[in-house]
């Protein structure tokens, strides 16, 4: 259904992978790949720290769906998406590129 990763960059995104990697025979099988922004205190940059939250319910799992978002250290919620059958067709609000002061 999905693979989640966090690191020390300001990137916050999810994408359904179906394409072939250029120059290879490796093709995505439709799995969702999600990246969570600056999750710790190491690394570089001054992006607001946050962690990706994954919301699972029995009802949504029956449809192979889940919800996910980033909860920022500032308590705000950004990057909320539903990974469901219409993901990559739906429209979601842009996540701001906030920095710490």
TrEMBL record:
GO cellular component term of the entry, any: cytoplasm
Please list the GO terms describing molecular function.
hydrolase activity, acting on ester bonds
Its protein name is Metallophosphoesterase
């Amino acid at each position: 259904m999905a693979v989640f990763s966090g690191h020390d960059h300001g990137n916050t995104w999810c994408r359904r992978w179906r394409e072939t990697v250029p120059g290879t025979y490796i093709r995505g099988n439709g799995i969702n790949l999600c990246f969570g922004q600056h999750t710790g205190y190491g690394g570089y940059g001054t992006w607001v720290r946050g962690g990706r939250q994954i919301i699972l319910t029995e009802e949504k799992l029956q449809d192979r769906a889940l919800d996910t978002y980033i909860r920022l250290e500032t308590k705000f919620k950004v990057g909320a998406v539903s990974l469901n059958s219409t993901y990559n067709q739906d429209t979601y609000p842009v996540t701001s590129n906030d920095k710490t002061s």
